[in-house]
Amino acid sequence: MNQMMNIPFLDLKGINHEYAEQLKAACNRVIDSGWYLMGRELEQFEATFADYCGSQHAIGVANGLDALTLVLRAWKEQGRLRAGDEVIVQSNTFIATISAILENDLAPILVDVDPTTHNLEIDAVERAITDKTRVILPVHLYGQLSPMPQIMALAKQHGLLVLEDAAQAHGAELAGRKAGNWGDAAAFSFYPGKNLGALGDGGAVTTNDAELAALVRALGNYGSRIKYQHDHQGVNSRLDEIQAAMLSVKLAHLDSDTARRRDVARYYSEHIRHPNIILPCVETASAHVWHLYVITCPWRDELKAYLAERGIQCLIHYPMAITEQQAYSDLARTSRATRTPLHGSVLSLPIYPTLPQEQQRYIVAAINQFTAPH
Ligand SMILES: *Cc1c(COP(=O)(O)O)cnc(C)c1O
């Protein structure tokens, strides 16, 4: 083994350091403007982000969870959803996807994911449709688009709404159409570690529905469209001027950052050779933006410990099934997921635009030398 390296799972400092001068200038601009909420920075970022996604509207909100929650809430306000309605969603996702559904008194119906892509499996969705189903909520997991052409066709056939959880998939594209521009609405997160990350919390809703856009905007601002006039019972969920300014700087570099993520992924996929390790499945290169590079291995815990001993930090997305979480164990009653959950075998390797090539080589060499216990 070569000299020991120390490789963090994510190097946020290094990622933001590349744009430090621009970020600091943008921050100063906001400080000097004397205007900190609902101003020109937000307006400009929303316009640019909508344009980037190819959708007509983008509404900045406080975080990704709120983006999901507010869309569902708006659909309830519009009478398109009622308490108790069923939302079909994959069992393998971050908890926020599920909380947004429960927060709105809707019923998450968990279904199996495709064992190769770990995204929604269309047959499983179809089998879970009942006369109470109103929404399909695909999560573009790890940064790879869900099978959207099939999901949209199925939704149309059954008169269902589609909400994309695009928190991990900024810029993922299939057939010329980006994440956030497939469903009736989409939710993005700008959590610092996401592919488009703020320097704090942030999120956005995208949609081509002008009425929905106006309603989401009102709901996130105390239900108000006109100051001190409250037509809805809303909440406070706003993307502030400083974060909007940070995001405008970083959005300009998103495509080149994604290209560098793809280079790392390609390097891993071409060079990791191990009889006990399954590499991530990529159907169309443009449809994956590599928020995470997730391998599966039956000796995952041993592999994770082995890599940690060599200074390589890996994480598990996600270590428990939703139904195993104490707060969500009730969902097991209605769950339609039957396959063995993936959480015992998945392992996420370090991947980010600034990951040096020699570190990539070191990671690959270490993995290829791993001996599975017998
Ligand atoms: C990060 C994430 C969210 C939540 O975003 P926050 O900004 O942290 O609230 C929702 N869904 C998925 C799939 C995520 O990865």
Automatic annotation (TrEMBL):
Keywords: Aminotransferase, Pyridoxal phosphate, Transferase. Transmembrane segments: none annotated. It holds the Pfam family DegT_DnrJ_EryC1. The active site is at residue 194. Gene3D superfamilies: Aspartate Aminotransferase, domain 1 (3.90.1150.10), Type I PLP-dependent aspartate aminotransferase-like (Major domain) (3.40.640.10). GO terms for molecular function: pyridoxal phosphate binding; transaminase activity. It comes from the Bacteria. The modification N6-(pyridoxal phosphate)lysine is found at residue 194. GO terms for biological process: polysaccharide biosynthetic process. PANTHER family: 3-OXO-GLUCOSE-6-PHOSPHATE:GLUTAMATE AMINOTRANSFERASE, TRANSAMINASE. Belongs to the DegT/DnrJ/EryC1 family. This is Aminotransferase. It comes from Pseudomonas chlororaphis. The lineage of its organism: Bacteria, Pseudomonadati, Pseudomonadota, Gammaproteobacteria, Pseudomonadales.
